[in-house]
Amino acid sequence: MKNNDNGNLPFVAIGNDELGGPVPDDALIKCKRCGTPHKLEYGTNAAGVETKIVGFVRCGEEAYLVAVDGHLVFSNEVAP
Fold first, then answer.
1. Structural contact between residues 78 and 72, judged by C-beta atoms closer than 8 angstroms
2. Within the chain, which residues score under 50 in pLDDT?
3. Which of 24, 26, 38, 44 is the most buried (most CB within 10 A)?
4. What spatial distance separates the first Cα and last Cα of the chain, rounded to whole Å?
5. pLDDT at residue 25, as a whole number
6. For the chain, what are the domain ranges?
7. d(C-alpha 26, C-alpha 33), whole Å
8. Own/partner pairs for 73-78, CB < 8 Å, 24+ apart?
9. How many CA atoms lie within 13 A of 51 on its CB side?
């Protein structure tokens, strides 16, 4: 992971009480940036194995955090 401009590693802390409902693996997530549905993707661990610890969507050139440990965060919604 790369340090940001002030030399610190970026991080986000999310407690269990801040997690939303479970999200299906094949879910499309309504993008807060453009409003269209995007495929939910997950990160990989150090061994290159996909893990549900961090879920995100890609919109244009950017990736946005939408799920942690298989649960939605930040009021994200599964697209109908």
1. yes
2. none
3. 38
4. 34
5. 83
6. 28-80
7. 20
8. 73/14, 73/18, 73/19, 73/20, 75/20, 76/20, 76/29, 76/30, 76/32, 77/29, 77/30, 78/23, 78/24, 78/27, 78/28, 78/29, 78/30
9. 10
